[in-house]
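Input (Magnesium transporter MgtE):
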Amino acid sequence: MVEQATHPKSLERNRLEPEDAQEALEHVQELLRRQHLVEELVHRQEVGDTRAPLVEALVQRQHDAELSALLEDLHPADVAFILESLPKEDRQVVWQLVHADRVGEILLEVADWVRESLISTMDQQELVAATENLEADELADLAPDLPPEVVAEVQKGLTDEERARLTEVMSYPENSVGAIMDFEMVRVRNDVTLEVVLRYLRRLNELPDHTDQIFVVDRLDKLQGSLPINRLIVSDPDTQVTDVMDTEILTLAPLDEADEAAAAFERYDLVSAPVVDAIGRLIGRVTVNEVVDVIREASDEQALSKAGLQEEDIFAPIAQAIRNRAPWLLINLCTASVAAFVASRFEDTVGHIVILAFLMSIVAGIGGNSGNQTMTLIIRALAVGRINAANVGKLVRRELQIAVLVGLGGGLVAALFAWAISGRYSLGLVMMAAMVLNLLVGASIGMLVPLARNRFGKDPAIGSSVLLTFATDTMGFFIFLGLATVFLL
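Output:
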């Protein structure tokens, strides 16, 4: 017996290459610019009072028709890219021109911060129409951003099986495997021949996306193994499924972390992986397209977190952007003030040896850059699960050794430079010692901050750069000026 979980969704449009999407964005921006120009001319009444409204209406109709045609030919992901790249006012103009039957699939593609702004402009009837034809897993992705009454209305039009699936997906945590799995898959029983499987597959319009294997289950839907598509094609059609299937396959649990699943896909070069419940029943699968989204989102969050930022609309109101950025900037201001205070305590030293004021920024800057390299390495290793209790000690020793060696090499160059411009070899030795010590500070903070935050279940990247800069600036000034006070005065 052969079963297909759901009918695969068809992809009617080809996605554009990135440069083509960029060209489409530029085309849209040019059309919008022309439309704004006409509106300004009409407002100034440069074409005459009687003809102005007619000219504006004709030009707008022409632009709308051209925009609509352009959007209709684009893949939903490329329309999403355009929407994310436009200011809010232009975004709404373009959104109004998107064909109604494409709204749902585009909402799935846009970033969360754009999705919220688009949904806020739609009434309940429009939202229901946009989402009523989505699959259960797709609807679950949108549900957190939809009004509860819209979700309730859409659920009324689902079958009992679809409603159960929607409830199941929505019950899992946001960053879990269960939240990203889908139900589109082909499964077979192990007591049929490959000929039976092939005959069934030929009756389908197409296979679900990213089908590289067919899952083998028993009569209770418990996963027995998988039948790779390439093996199905080349094997004798009279062979039993049980004789050629793989029994040693990687499986995921719905409560596994999505990041861990992504790491498994990367490690084993997977295209799809089955998701099984606690008793081994096949309940869904995760495909590489979902994993790519997980990796991209994690990468974006990490890049923003290092600077103390949260994801925001690049065209968000200024007040909102300030609320997002100000907290860590204020923290940075405080830490910079501490560093300046430390430097001010050595006013007499700097007064006697003025060149110290120029050299101390080198010590602080090199320490910060080196520490940032270490921190980036640690955060990346934590993200892919390569650091654990067994190897963290060895990693710490390695990074400290690297800091010492780099500090000695760089410090020697800096010492020669300091000696050349000052004529004092003692200043060069102080410069070298300060660089070695500050590189050790940078390496230590670069490891300590992300490791400590990860140990307590926090994002290791959040605010890490700010704290690193504080440590290397403050300690760099203190170490360099302190050594100069002791050995040069």
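The chain has three domains: 18-173, 181-306, 318-488.
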